[in-house]
Amino acid sequence: MIRVSEEQYPTIKQMILRAPTFVYSILDQIIEGTVYADTTAFQTLLFHTKSGIYYIYGDINKTAVDQQLSYCFLESIKQKKRFTLFSSTAQWDTKIEQLFDGLIRKLERYTFSFDEDMYNQREKSEGHDYEVQPITEHLIKNSLEFGHAYYDEYWDSPANFLEKGFGFCLVHHHQIISEAVAIFKSNDYAEIDIMTDPNFRGQGLASMIAETFIDRCLAHAIKPCWDCDISNTASIYLGTKLGFTKPQKYSIFTKKEPTLSSKTS
């Protein structure tokens, strides 16, 4: 496959249908990444973040992508790095499973559509005395879940997130008790990631901080995005309350962990 130049990113962005938010983050050059194509006609595309997250899109019959995916997979093993592959269709699911026979595991997730009218008509979360603060370097250092390693993985660095991303937290006696941050963001989309301290759950804090995040999106003409594992009933319930509807199932594939026998052989 050929590596697509950044000058071609706007063309590709117009060609593809709805894709994971990280794909648009790459195309808008908000995070580092690489785009591969079978030919200059861009019939098949492979998107690759620096952290090892991939998305495959287009014609499944192009053999060049088989070789590129195999190379990326072997490199991830050699370098002991992450390999997470997002599939765009059921046809790609089948091809990926055939290509990596026995070497990967399949996980199913939902992506939701955001209904702004439903969101605006819902009953807002009750107020709390907790202070809402935008994410800063100081708060990143004190986060329970979204520390420096998180922003290194998904945003290339905390500095890049602070410059190009956004997020909010609830603070109680100088302690972060709930956060909502953009795990990925583009010029048009922002995918939400939420954490609440287990000691403060059951108070509606996740709804409250999510509303702050969503309101910020709407104020800047950005569409909020909500994805989760199909088994995450709590996330599905919360997302539905916030106006995320019409769940659509998709698949991701990750490397299988080596068995004990393979580690010791």
TrEMBL record:
<dbReference type="InterPro" id="IPR000182">
    <property type="entry name" value="GNAT_dom"/>
</dbReference>
<keyword id="KW-0808">Transferase</keyword>
<feature type="domain" description="N-acetyltransferase">
    <location>
        <begin position="130"/>
        <end position="265"/>
    </location>
</feature>
<keyword id="KW-0012">Acyltransferase</keyword>
<protein>
    <submittedName>
        <fullName>GNAT family N-acetyltransferase</fullName>
        <ecNumber>2.3.1.-</ecNumber>
    </submittedName>
</protein>
<dbReference type="Pfam" id="PF12746">
    <property type="entry name" value="GNAT_acetyltran"/>
</dbReference>
<dbReference type="GO" id="GO:0016747">
    <property type="term" value="F:acyltransferase activity, transferring groups other than amino-acyl groups"/>
</dbReference>
<dbReference type="InterPro" id="IPR027365">
    <property type="entry name" value="GNAT_acetyltra_YdfB-like"/>
</dbReference>
<dbReference type="InterPro" id="IPR016181">
    <property type="entry name" value="Acyl_CoA_acyltransferase"/>
</dbReference>
